[in-house]
């Protein structure tokens, strides 16, 4: 059942409306037609089983189809909010409605910690602005619950509200009350009662236990089988459906009729299993399911069983509101620990799905729950509210809160503060270390320490894979792609971006997918032979805007401007960078502001008139801890400084920082600036990587036609000795049998191919024997355990392995290459294969190197 969490909830299908009555045309005729601006509220009341919900569903569907939106874009949206007679806080109803109307998240997150009066005022204002031109059904609510909701909705533009209730009296401010009465045949209980009793007698023990539990639930709202997770309960559910005691109302959504409920409660079971024990069992299963699904997002441990398979977040979307009601059930059991676990996992999933409104409702319900506050902190940071994010974890001294503080600092560009908040690197290999390494690697990348960043991020990716934390794996791959881009490894960066995109798409990580697209724009901008692509840029911006990711929008504008500037379209580049400044200012990203000002200053016609921009950028980079940015800004100031002493001072700073970063590209440009401006006639040139850009720069200065340092020069960090990587060896893993499926054998060929210039390539006869040791990291068999091979491009010199997957899905395999004579490990390589449950070809990822433990 595909349902968008921040979209209208679907209307259940209760079957045909009573054919003998005139309820449907009467109620439809009472609703105002055309562009009547004021809201209209109708209450359908009647005894249990009279068909109020069935009538409301049909009225809502038909009215919405007839009364299209004024824009003509489609029929009026219908929101079905069923509470099953349970007592629900009016704020939670309004928050859910705002979420389904797609209301912006920033306002509700800012108000999350506000006092009740201020929070209520914010809700009213938000509803008046965003809850309009739609049909809202409040199903099975009491006047006490509905009155404060209707008080707010009465101020919404062109809204139609249909309420169903058992209560006839106690309503105020409604336009029409309509009594729904069952037909005479339905009032006669002689017919159905004996049949129901006979059906009850036919039930198995498990079926009767489940039926008793469903009848005793506080909420009578439609439910799904996901909250009765154990297999024996699902089997019992099938039996209840077969006997007609439970009816299907929408694909995987079911309901228990009032007639069945009343009969069950009036005829107690002879079974001895108490409802409390069943509630304990089902609540525990629901908690395990949510924790397993949250584990895919944060790597938390959960109890593994053969029956428990984690669901992806988007698979939980249709059931979220049902899970939102479960804490009340566990509270009745006084199972505090179970309730806290359930809320914690639910908060993680809601934050990932980006539903701030339901997450705020969870926080208002449990204001002291630190897991909920940390989840809302992460979401606040993602939508550009770092100050609010910090306030949400104020006073929390846990390690998880320290990580969130570091992430908040990173989001605002304060790199040194982020590293300080992370503290010293952990020595343990657990999921907390994996997340800390991920954030530390991202910080180091922005600072320009590319080798150290790559080491941390590789280790982080390995740990995330080991804990099956798919979200962490995807983000580690994304940041590794950023490192590759800085090093000028475009092919490797493209491969990592594709890997990150596959992980993010499979998990449904919308924000990660958007950032992958932004990095693709950066890759295209840095490849000077690629023109700007406005259509794709607009699509990426729209994706970030839909998620309300201001930082993502800002960096997309930066790289779009970069592409325009490279194509010589200076006016378009300036417009993009101005928009980037506005976005970065809104989300307080100081690093984004500094880099944008740096790029803007490069295009100014009069350098002296805009020296303040260079000075502001330099001090901003210095205060933020971005050594890479401060070095390039100091170099630009040195090239423009009016006096020899001032120019020499900034040039010395740039050289010192580039040397600290071991960046030979930056050092070469510093030497070139020194020679061009005659500020350092004795500047050494040995060991420099004089690129064509540098030679052209020096030639222009010698000819009396000085040119600025190209914009793309600062997109590259070259480490001493980095260019010699071609002299290494590459491990090649080839799948010899196409389209492997579960429990079938597929052959894999492992080869070690020496690169040009490597001794093994020049003298094949002198190559040593190597061992390739195989290890499956998932549920599969890989034989033999170890095999000999020779370094060579020839297939016959490789090692062949038999791979048998024992389940469908993604499988990870690790091969350790070592010298046969000494056992010295040379490299560890991992590869992934997608095993499908059909004969269709799966995805076979390229192998990637893994850092050996303890080395």
- Low-confidence segments, given as residue ranges, are 184-191, 605-609, 679-689, 851-855
Quantity of strands, as a count: 16
Mean pLDDT: 84
Query: Which class of secondary structure composition applies to the elements?
Result: alpha/beta
What's the shape?
Answer: globular
Biggest β-sheet strands, sense, barrel? 5 strands, parallel
Question: Can you characterise this structure?
Answer:
This protein is α/β, with parallel strands linked by helices and 855 residues long. It is 52% helix and 11% strand. The strands form four sheets. The chain has a five-stranded parallel β-sheet with strand order 2-3-4-1-5, with helices on both faces. Strands 12-10-14-15-16 form a five-stranded antiparallel β-sheet, covered by helices on one side. A hairpin with a 2-residue loop joins β6 and β7. α20 runs antiparallel to α21. 45% of the residues are buried.
Structure, briefly:
The protein is α/β, with parallel strands linked by helices.
Topology:
Elements: H1 23-30, E1 40-45, H2 52-66, E2 78-82, H3 90-100, H4 106-110, H5 116-130, E3 134-139, H6 143-153, E4 159-165, E5 176-179, H7 184-187, H8 192-202, H9 205-216, H10 231-242, E6 247-250, E7 253-255, H11 258-266, H12 275-298, H13 313-316, H14 320-332, H15 336-353, H16 356-365, H17 370-382, H18 386-392, H19 399-411, H20 415-422, H21 431-447, H22 450-466, H23 470-486, H24 490-507, H25 510-526, H26 534-547, H27 550-566, H28 570-587, H29 590-602, H30 611-624, H31 627-640, H32 644-661, H33 664-676, H34 692-702, E8 729-735, E9 746-754, H35 759-762, E10 770-776, E11 780-783, E12 786-789, E13 799-805, E14 809-819, E15 825-835, E16 848-850
Parallel strand pairs: 1-4, 1-5, 2-3, 3-4
Antiparallel strand pairs: 6-7, 8-9, 9-13, 10-12, 10-14, 11-13, 14-15, 15-16
Helix pairs in contact: 1-2, 3-5, 3-6, 3-16, 9-10, 9-11, 12-14, 12-15, 14-15, 15-16, 15-17, 16-17, 17-18, 17-19, 18-19, 19-20, 19-21, 20-21, 21-22, 21-23, 22-23, 23-24, 23-25, 24-25, 25-26, 25-27, 26-27, 27-28, 28-29, 29-30, 30-31, 31-32, 31-33, 32-33, 33-34
């Amino acid at each position: 059942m595909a349902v968008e969490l921040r979209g209208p909830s679907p209307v259940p299908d209760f079957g045909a409306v009573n054919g003998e009555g005139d309820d449907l045309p009467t109620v439809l005729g009472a609703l105002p037609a055309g562009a009547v601006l004021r809201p209209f509220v109708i209450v359908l009341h009647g005894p249990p089983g009279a068909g109020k919900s069935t009538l409301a569903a049909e009225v809502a569907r038909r009215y919405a189809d007839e009364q299209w939106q004024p824009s003509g874009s489609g029929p009026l949206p219908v929101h079905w909010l069923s509470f099953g007679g349970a007592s629900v806080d009016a704020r939670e109803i309004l928050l859910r409605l705002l979420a389904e109307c797609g209301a912006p998240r920033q306002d509700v997150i800012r108000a999350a910690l506000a006092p009740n009066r201020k929070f209520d005022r914010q809700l009213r204002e938000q509803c008046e602005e965003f809850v309009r031109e739609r049909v809202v059904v409040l199903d099975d609510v009491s006047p006490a619950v509905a009155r404060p909701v209707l008080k707010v909705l009465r101020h919404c533009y062109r809204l139609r509200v249909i309420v169903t209730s058992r209560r006839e009296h106690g309503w105020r401010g409604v336009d029409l009350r309509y009594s729904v009465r069952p037909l005479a045949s339905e009032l006669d209980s002689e017919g159905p009662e004996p049949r129901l009793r006979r059906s009850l007698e036919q039930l198995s023990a498990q079926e009767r236990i489940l039926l008793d539990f469903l009848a005793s639930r506080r909420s009578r709202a439609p439910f799904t089988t996901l909250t009765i997770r154990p297999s024996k309960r699902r089997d019992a559910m099938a039996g209840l459906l077969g006997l007609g005691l439970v009816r299907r109302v929408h694909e995987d959504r079911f309901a228990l009729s009032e007639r069945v409920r009343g009969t069950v409660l009036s005829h107690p079971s002879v079974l001895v299993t108490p409802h409390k024990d069943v509630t304990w069992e089902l609540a525990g299963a629901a908690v395990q399911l949510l924790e397993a699904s949250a584990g895919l997002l944060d790597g938390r441990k959960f109890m593994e069983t053969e029956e428990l398979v984690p669901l992806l977040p988007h698979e939980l979307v249709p059931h979220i509101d049902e899970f939102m009601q479960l804490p009340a059930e566990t509270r009745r059991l006084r199972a505090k620990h179970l309730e806290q676990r359930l809320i914690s996992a639910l908060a993680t999933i809601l934050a990932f799905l980006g539903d701030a409104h339901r997450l705020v409702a969870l926080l208002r319900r449990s204001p002291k729950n630190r897991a909920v506050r940390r989840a809302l902190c992460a979401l606040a940071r993602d939508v550009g509210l770092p100050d609010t994010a910090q306030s949400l974890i104020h006073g929390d001294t846990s390690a998880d809160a320290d990580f969130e503080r570091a992430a908040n600092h990173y989001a605002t560009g304060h790199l040194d503060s982020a590293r300080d908040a992370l503290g010293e690197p952990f020595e343990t290999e657990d999921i907390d270390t994996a997340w800390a390494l991920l954030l530390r690697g991202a910080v180091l990348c922005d600072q320009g320490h590319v080798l150290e960043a790559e080491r941390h991020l590789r280790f982080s990716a390995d740990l995330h894979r080991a804990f099956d934390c798919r979200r962490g794996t995807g983000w580690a791959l994304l940041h590794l792609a950023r490192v590759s881009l800085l090093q000028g490894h475009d092919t490797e960066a493209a491969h990592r971006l594709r890997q990150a995109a596959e992980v993010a798409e499979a998990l449904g990580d919308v924000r990660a997918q958007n950032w992958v697209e932004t990095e693709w724009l950066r890759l295209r901008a840095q490849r000077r032979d690629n023109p700007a692509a406005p259509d794709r840029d607009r699509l990426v911006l729209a994706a970030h805007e839909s998620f309300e990711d201001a930082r993502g929008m800002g960096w997309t504008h930066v790289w779009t401007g970069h592409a325009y500037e490279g194509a010589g379209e200076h006016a378009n580049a300036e417009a993009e960078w101005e928009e980037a400044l506005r976005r970065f200012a809104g989300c307080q990203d100081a690093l984004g502001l500094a880099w944008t000002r740096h790029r803007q200053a490069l295009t100014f016609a009069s350098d002296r008139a805009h020296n303040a921009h260079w000075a502001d950028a330099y001090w901003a980079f210095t205060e933020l801890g971005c050594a890479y940015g401060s070095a390039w800004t100091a170099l630009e100031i040195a090239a423009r400084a009016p006096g020899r002493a001032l120019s020499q001072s900034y040039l010395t700073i740039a050289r010192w920082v580039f040397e600290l970063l071991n960046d030979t590209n930056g050092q070469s440009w510093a030497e070139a600036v020194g020679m061009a401006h005659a500020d350092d006639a004795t500047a050494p040139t040995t060991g420099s990587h004089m690129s064509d850009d540098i030679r052209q720069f020096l030639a222009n200065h010698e000819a009396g036609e000085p040119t600025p340092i190209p914009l793309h020069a600062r997109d590259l960090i070259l480490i001493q000795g980095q260019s010699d990587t071609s002299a290494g060896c590459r491990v090649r893993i080839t799948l010899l049998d196409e389209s492997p499926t579960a429990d079938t054998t597929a052959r894999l060929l492992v080869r070690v191919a020496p690169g040009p210039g490597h001794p093994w390539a020049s003298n094949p006869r002198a190559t040593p024997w190597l061992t390739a040791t195989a290890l499956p990291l998932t549920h599969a068999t890989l034989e033999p355990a170890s095999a000999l091979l020779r370094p060579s491009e020839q297939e016959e010199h490789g090692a062949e392995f038999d791979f048998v997957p024992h389940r469908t899905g993604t499988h990870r395999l690790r091969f350790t290459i070592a010298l046969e004579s000494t056992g010295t490990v040379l490299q560890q390589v991992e590869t992934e294969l997608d095993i499908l449950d059909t004969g269709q070809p799966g995805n076979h990822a390229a192998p990637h190197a893994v850092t050996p433990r303890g080395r």
